[in-house]
Amino acid sequence: MTIYTPSQADKKPAQDAQEPEVVTDTEPLTGEKKEKEAFEAVIVNNQYNDGRAILLRARRRSAFMHMLLALIILGVLALGAIGSVVLYRHLNKKVGSQVYAGRCGNEFFDVTYHETSMRLDDEVQKDYVDEDIAVYPEANYEELHTPRFDEVQETFVLHDFVVNYTALIDHKQRRCFITTIRNNILRPDDFVIQVQQRTPFGSILQTVVIRENYVMVIPDHFNPPFGKRIYEACFRYETYRLELYVNGVMKRSALGMTEKHGLGEQVGVYAVFTNNATHQQLYKIQVYEPMQLP
Questions:
Q1: Would you call 159 helix, strand, or coil by DSSP?
Q2: What residue intervals traverse the membrane (predicted)?
Q3: Binning pLDDT at 50, 70 and 90, where does residue 256 land?
Q4: What is the maximal distance between C-alpha atoms in the chain?
Q5: Hey, what's the torsion of the CAs at 33, 36, 42, 43, to 10 degrees?
Q6: Integer distance in angstroms from the first to the last C-alpha of the chain?
Q7: Which of 235, 90, 220, 244 has the alpha carbon at shortest distance from 174?
Q8: Fewer beta carbons under 10 A from the terminal one: N or C of the chain?
């Protein structure tokens, strides 16, 4: 009799036997977990840095806007200050420095000029020149301008009645010639009276021509005797004093002295009008270099 013994493989597993555990989790079993954590940290760090960059840019824009606003405010204040100064000067000039300005037409006939220039004929009956006038009665001075005509250079004239001097300014030669004001030069107050009385100003005046010779000399002093206005007009130029020359004698009217001089080379001829509406005169001032006589 044969006894059959089942093999170990044929044995049924016990019901209470534990089955082997099956790992179903997909969690990496290597260093991939650490790499994932590092990657997530990098993302968080980048987001933090981006936030800081955005915040810094916002702060920079804010600082720039504050600076721009400050510059705009300063510019507005500066423009306001400049405008106030200009307005004050304009109003102050209107109130305190009234000016009478205009142009005077003068008809004249200079026989000497036409004889020497060989222009004396029947067709030339009279000459004409305009004079620009600016009179300041409160400041007590006058500014005059005549263009070039005949043998006369363009002339700028400053009459300062405060110090009683006249300056003839030649901008082309950069020279100033100073002399005392003539007694027949119309003063600013008298000029205003003529304008208010509507005397012939604005019409063409018949003018008498007078020629005079002057010798130019270097003054001993400049600023103190000639006044502030003449100094400001002439301090950049060569400045000379004019002395009247009559019959070989140079008369120093201010000093009451006379000296014998001859006439040297002619420097120029300049025009000075008396601006008297009822009796207009044109002085042609012929300026010469001095020549000492033995």
A1: strand
A2: 67-88
A3: very low
A4: 190
A5: -140
A6: 188
A7: 235
A8: N
